[in-house]
């Protein structure tokens, strides 16, 4: 039993090459499927992910069902992914090539229909994201973009944004200046009224 679990049935180098090759192909497939595939996982996406993992399993493990062979594949995946992630963090050109760039989907309160069609995004998905950020509608958005990782980033127009602590502090400072000015004017008025009576 232990012998079968620990005996790798294909060479370890082949196992590593298979794992790296499948990783690279799946990355390319996700890159070609676009940012929309990462924006929100729906029922169909879940089905594809489950089937994809089952389809590529044999390509990774080959005829090897040993525990050690599975561990070699798992370690290879984690190491390759960590290396690619660090590479992308250091090299903006590689990140642009492998991940792509952000796509503007809303500009000055208007949907960018060509971008939506290209990304296969529905206006209802954008409207839902607007409501999550306390906007009333797409017209409240200064700019909306779909990032390479699938996140939809929306920037509300200045008039639609909630006040920040800095805004409130600036307002307090202005009110204090107005109060001081009113106090000075009231004092002058009293002095002027006293002289005239």
Keyphrases for this structure?
66% helix; alpha+beta; CRO Repressor; four-stranded antiparallel β-sheet; elongated; single chain; 197 residues; 3 domains
Broad shape: elongated
What would you report as the Rg, rounded to the nearest angstrom? 30 Å
What structural class do you assign from the helix and strand content? alpha+beta
- SSE pattern, N- to C-terminal: HHHHHHEEHHEEH
The average pLDDT score comes to 83
Largest sheet, spatial ordering of strands: 2-1-3-4
Distance between the termini: 113 Å
| Percent of residues in beta strands | 5-15%
Strand count, sense and barrel status of the largest sheet are: 4 strands, antiparallel
Tell me the number of helical segments per DSSP (H or I, 4 or more residues long): 9
**Spans of at least 5 consecutive residues with low confidence:** none
Q: How many E-type strands?
A: 4
- The share of residues in helices is 55-70%
Overall structural domain count: 3
Structure, explained:
With 197 residues, this protein is α+β, with helices and mostly antiparallel strands. It folds into three domains: 2-99, no CATH class; 103-160, CRO Repressor (2-Layer Sandwich); 169-197. It contains nine helices and four strands; from the N terminus they run ααααααββααββα. The protein has helices spanning 2-6, 12-33, 36-39, 43-61, 67-90, 92-99, 113-119, 123-132, 165-196, and strands at residues 103-107, 110-111, 141-146, 152-156. Strands 2-1-3-4 form a four-stranded antiparallel β-sheet. Helix 2 (12-33) crosses helix 5 (67-90) and helix 5 (67-90) crosses helix 6 (92-99). The radius of gyration is 30 Å and the shape is elongated.
């Amino acid at each position: 039993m232990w012998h079968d679990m620990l005996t790798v049935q294909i060479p370890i180098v082949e196992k590593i090459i298979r794992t790296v090759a499948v990783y690279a192909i799946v990355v390319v497939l996700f890159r070609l499927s676009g940012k929309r595939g990462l924006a929100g996982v729906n029922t169909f996406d879940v089905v594809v992910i489950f089937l994809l993992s089952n389809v590529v399993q044999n390509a990774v493990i080959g005829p090897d069902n040993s525990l050690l062979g599975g561990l070699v594949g798992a370690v290879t995946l984690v190491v390759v992914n960590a290396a690619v992630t660090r590479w992308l963090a250091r090299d903006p050109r590689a990140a642009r090539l492998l991940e792509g760039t952000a796509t503007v989907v809303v500009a000055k309160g208007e949907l960018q229909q060509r971008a939506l069609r290209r990304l296969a995004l529905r206006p209802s998905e954008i409207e839902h994201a607007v409501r999550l950020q306390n906007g009333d509608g797409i017209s409240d958005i200064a700019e909306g973009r779909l990032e390479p990782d699938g996140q939809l980033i929306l920037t509300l127009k200045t008039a639609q944004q909630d006040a920040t602590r800095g805004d409130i502090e600036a307002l307090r400072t202005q009110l204090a200046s107005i109060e001081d000015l009113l106090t000075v004017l009231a004092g002058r008025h009293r002095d002027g009224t006293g002289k005239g009576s």
